[in-house]
Structures are given as structure tokens and as C-alpha cells.
Amino acid sequence: MPRPADVALLALQVLGLVALNIAGEYLASWMHLPLPGNLVGMLILLALLLTRVVRIEWFAASAAIFTRHLAFFFVPIAVGLMAYGTLLRTEGAAILATLIASAVVGIMVTGGTVSRLLRSHPPEGS
């Protein structure tokens, strides 16, 4: 059974992530950015982490839980795709190529970001 302090800490971390998401949505809408608001929120978080305004430890527990249960976030997407069967049959190859290319770029950017963060903030005990 988790301790109340752990639950409260996790709730604060999730609240912080939600606040950054809302800020990103607001900024994207207000500035008419051609980017989704949740991406703007992630960029805000990245900027805060890189400038050390926010420490990565502040979000570690919630990030670990979201990562552990990441597969659940893809179920609604997969169900929603069923409504686009015709589009997937005609444009499926182009969509698949775009998805693969964007995944590769995303992995490379994530790897570079994590590498940079680990160089500037090595894990304890290493």
C-alpha cells in the first residue's frame, strides 16, 4: 500500500505535467502556432529542464509510471483508426513511411536530449 506522502508527491508531479500541457495548449492557441499544444507543453518542460529551472527528479515518479503503462495510451488511437479504413488502404504506405521516419527522428532527438541531460546531471552513485 503506497504511503499518503508518496501518493501526494505523485499527484503533485502529475499536476505539474498537466499544468505544462495546459500552458502549451494556451500558448499554441494564443500565438497561432502550427504545433499541437501538447508538443508546446513538452518543449516548455524541455526548456525548463535544460535551464535547470526545474529538476528532472521533480517528475521522475510520474514519468516512470507513464512510461511503464505507455501501451494503454495507444489503445484509443488504434480504435480510432478503424474509422479510416479507406484512407489507410489508399494512403497507408505513405502514412507508414512518415510514421517510421518521424519515429526515427524522435528516437534520435530523445537520445540526444537524454545524453545531454545525463552529462549535465549524472545519476547518483555513478
TrEMBL record:
Its placement in the membrane is given as: Multi-pass membrane protein
Listed A to Z, the keywords are: Cell membrane, Membrane, Transmembrane, Transmembrane helix
The keyword Cell membrane is annotated on this UniProt entry: yes
Q: Which InterPro entries match?
A: LrgA/CidA (IPR005538)
Where is this gene product found?
Cell membrane
Q: Which residues cross the membrane?
A: 39-58, 70-87, 93-118
A Pfam family annotated for this chain is: LrgA
* Predominant location: membrane
**Does the keyword field hold Mitochondrion?**
no
Cellular-component GO terms for this entry: plasma membrane
Query: Which PANTHER family does this chain map to?
Result: HOLIN-LIKE PROTEIN CIDA, HOLIN-LIKE PROTEIN CIDA-RELATED
Kindly provide the name given to this protein in its UniProt entry: Unannotated protein
Recorded source organism is freshwater metagenome
